[in-house]
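Record type: monomer structure entry
Structure origin: computed from sequence
Chain ID: A
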Amino acid sequence: MTDKPLICVPIFKEDLDSAKKTADKAMKLGADILELRIDALKNPDSDKIGRFMDTFKGKIIATNRKTIEGGFFKGSEAERTKILREVAEFAEFVDIELLTEKKYLKKVIKASKSTIISFHDFKKTPRVTEILEVVMQEKEIGDMAKFAVMPHNMQDTLIVFQVLSQVKDTIGISMGDLGSYTRVIAALFGSPLTFASIDEVSAPGQLDIESTKLFLDKFKKW
């Protein structure tokens, strides 16, 4: 088996005070890294977000998800990616979507210490060859690849493992209740990070941190 993956808890709050409380709780419960969902903030201010990230005693992934990929940021692409660039120095990783317009994508990658290049399909699970092509594109420009897809049957969920068995440094997720088990089983196929919740979930099928830790601890003994 591979080394135990990092447990990441998304912080999905409307203001930074609430985000701080949730972040502290997540760390106490055993999170290894947090994902600050900037798109959830009502009034995202780069300076305030940067100070929050700089003073927080823990690793943070900065994400500002656009609506077409399940996010809530209401501004323009220029505004969305500008915020990411301005807080990038305080983040362990910046998560930026592969389908971001190239002129903005390049600027975010350049400003970041490390990047997770992500892809989401909330309607279906593409074929193995299609997902592998996406992952290869992600790995060409970023430090870590990520794909999250929606299954319609159990066979679809197995596609995630087929992909992960052929690549490294890749986070693979099958979403929804049907695919929830892949969030922990993916560790057996080399996924370096898994997402878990402590309050509300930020993606369909996300497990709570206690269940995730329990499963990963059991797998570590295999």
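Annotation 1: DSSP finds nine helices and nine strands in the chain.
Annotation 2: The longest strand covers residues 115-121.
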